[in-house]
Amino acid sequence: MPSPVRVGLGYDIHRLVAGRKLILGGVEIPSEVGLEGHSDADALTHALADAVLGALALPDIGHFFPNTDPQYRGMDSQEILHRAVEEAKKRGYKIGNVDIAVLAEQPRLSPHVAKMKARLAATLGVTVEDVGLKATTNEGCDTIGAGEAIAAHAVVVLVRTE
Ligand code: MG
């Protein structure tokens, strides 16, 4: 019998570079630097999509959206997350709740958390009460602390619908 709940874990990191927009949680955040990557490089949304796929024991988003495929260049990562949610639906699961920790030394993300939660909730098909999102710095440690990259961790619970 299929499990009534399934849990998934996701992680992603992208480098900060000049000349790119900073997109996190599907929201454009004013910044001198942005994340480098093939798609819009939204590390937070990538971690979340990988958590959904992981809960289904599927391969990661690189399998569904290879970064060698020109059709995915500059892609809105909400589309990637939407696809992961569709894969869950196909297998008889919906999103129960998610929780995310995003690590960024700069810029300050807290003014944008409410907007990110609303955008993610819409893509996930849940209410904002089902989306946990904490932004923290890395206390000056390592690459993230030096302001060279932004990383995110995500967990998701899928609930059986059938
Ligand atoms: Mg990524």
Describe the model.
The chain has about 160 residues and is of the alpha+beta class. It has one domain (about 5-160): 2-C-methyl-D-erythritol 2,4-cyclodiphosphate synthase (60s Ribosomal Protein L30, Chain: A, 2-Layer Sandwich). It has five helices and seven strands. The protein has helices at about 45-55, 60-65, 75-90, 115-125, 140-145, and strands at about 5-20, 25, 25-30, 35, 95-105, 130-135, 150-160. The strands form two sheets. It has a five-stranded mixed β-sheet. Strands 2-3 form a two-stranded antiparallel sheet. Strand 2 and strand 3 form a beta hairpin. The chain is globular and about 50 Å long. The structure holds magnesium ion. Magnesium ion binds near residues 14, 37 and 43.
Q: What is the name of the CATH class?
A: Alpha Beta
Look up the CATH topology. Answer: 60s Ribosomal Protein L30, Chain: A
Uncertain stretches? none
- Provide the structure class: alpha+beta
Count of DSSP E strands? 7
The CATH homologous superfamily is named 2-C-methyl-D-erythritol 2,4-cyclodiphosphate synthase
Q: Please state the oligomeric state of the protein chains shown.
A: single chain
- Taking Cα atoms only, what radius of gyration do you get, to the nearest Å? 15 Å
How many helix segments?
Answer: 5
Strand adjacency order, main sheet:
4-1-7-5-6
Bound small molecules, by name, code or SMILES, are: magnesium ion
Q: How large is the share of residues in beta strands?
A: 25-35%
First-residue to last-residue Cα separation:
11 Å
The coarse overall form would be globular
